[in-house]
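Appendix B: complex inputs.
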Amino acid sequence: MGLIKHTPMRLQQASDQDLVKLYINGDEAVIEELLRRHKSKIFTSIYLLVKDQYLAEDIFQDAFIKVINTLRSGRYNEEGKFLPWVMRIAHNLVIDYFRKEKRTPTITSSDGTDVLNLIQIHEESAEERILREQTHTDLRKMIHHLPDEQKEVLIMRHYADLSFKEIAELTDVSINTALGRMRYALSNLRKMMNIKEVSISRS
Amino acid sequence: MTKTFTPTRFKELSNPTALEQGNNPDQKLYEAIKPKLDELYREPSEETIAKILKYAKKR
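Resulting structure:
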């Protein structure tokens, strides 16, 4: 192959597929770039499905170990579709977890400390912080209140950044069904935001 | 006056990127809610990333 000289700048410009090829050809360091690109999308998607930071960490790690093992064994054949492929692996691990636990996602567990709370552009008052944390908690609860199929599409579309075609393939429904579920999810979220008086526009 | 049927809605529904690019109400609603949804992004811990990288480098 030899298409990419191994410098951080070059790696950032390379496609996912090029990075995957480099990894398969023995360049272990490129996995760091793949993680940098996709960790937030994949992790947030897992977290919003399982609602537990530590469990999400475990599933995220397991998903990437499966990714690495598959790449090493030469069984990877998803041309140019790295993110949907990883999301499918993560999604299956989440399903496995709920099967093992013999329970379905419900709105019972409390939320842990919000990592996002540590990242602030400006200093905020205690009152602002409490309000923001409450809004995040409310919003997470609203997402969890959505019917599972709507929640799934919303998470995959917004957080995992998958196309409706990819979501349709992953969830084994038609594109129209995936689109419809997204519409209902957004509409239901808006209704819940109105009830909870959560401002849609950024405060 | 004769009403004609224009399957615009169907075309929108059939388009996988309808929500991503159109000027339809769904797109507007999504754009309105998006900033709030974005606030929920989070990342795995450094420890988890380090474990994955360590595993990735073992052959």
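Chain A touches chain B through 53 residues (CB under 8 Å).
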